[in-house]
What we know:
Layout: E1 6-10, E2 13-18, E3 21-26, E4 29-37, E5 40-46, H1 52-61, E6 66-68, H2 70-80, H3 89-102
Parallel strand pairs: 5-6
Antiparallel strand pairs: 1-2, 2-3, 3-4, 4-5
Helix pairs in contact: 2-3
Amino acid sequence: MPIPKVNQMRANFYSVELPNGAVYISYQTPIALDIYGDAGTEHIRRKQFYSVTTSKHLNQYCRGYRQVHEGEWKEWMAQALGEKSAEHIKEAADGKIKRAIQI
């Protein structure tokens, strides 16, 4: 897998290109996704409470994204990471996103 491209969009807010989409990260928390597919791009965001700054990032960059609960979020993350199932999401997300942020 090629090294993911990391874009700093704002202080403490990044987008990381993944095999099948992009993940948006506030501080070190993945909060939203763009999933690329044959039918177009699916825009997903986590539905949970965040700090004031992370909420600002969501409201500025991810307005209109579909909100999903944690179980569905993990499935979408697995798809963005190119994983075959959500069973591998924790290991894959932890490793790939941490490496991408450190670059």
